[in-house]
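To: structure subgroup
Subject: Chain for Friday's discussion

All,

I'm putting the inputs and outputs inline so they're searchable in the archive.
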Amino acid sequence: MKLNKDKMIYNILIFASILAIIPMSIVYSDSELFNCNNLIITGCNLSNKENIENQIEYIKNKSIFDVNKNQIVTKLVNNDFISSAYISTLLPNTIVISISEIIPISIIKINKSSYLVNESKNGFLYNENPSRALNIPKIYFNNIENLKDVFEKFEYKFIQNIYSNYYSLYKKVNEIKYLKNKLIVSFNINGNNNSVYFDSNDYKNQIQYLDTFLKITDNQDQRSYYKYIKFAGETIIVKEERII
């Protein structure tokens, strides 16, 4: 019994010694084993991965134990589309950067320029790339020059409200235009583009009416294509083209 106890103590001492030696060998070793030779970046959907790699190129061949993670995070969150970042190390020589990006609710079209805007009234210049097109609503403006003016417009308030309160309806929005004091919103209803006309003074109620209407029709066996949908108070007026 005593022999087993002594053997156990011996094994514990050996294990503790190994644990003590490993950190010391890492700190004082001249080996390049722990130099950063691999960089893994995840979460880049809007951000340019190549630009991020160039920003932190200075950590290449640097010991992963000497890398200042807070400094990297500070650099990354200064990029337009990055809201936060998490840095981790993977022994012996890999740095892993996990990026969280802003969540855009619309692509804003002003003249020939495109911008992404989020729910918090932030906007960033956006170069549309067909290979990674975003499936979010587009809003077209013809009467403004600056992005900052967008956030006071009816169109933005509309998409902000529908995104926050009626997300399933928001997912059906294709594009938004303002014409002759009416907001014309193109919805994908039953696989077809359907125009819905909203009033600036009552759009919040009208969004609620439309949401209720579509939930009812979605539960029906027949599917219809509507040339347009308009409102008269709480009444919804539709022009039904055909049954799908």
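Points worth raising on Friday:
The chain has three domains: 1-30, 32-101, 104-243.
The radius of gyration is 28 Å.

D.
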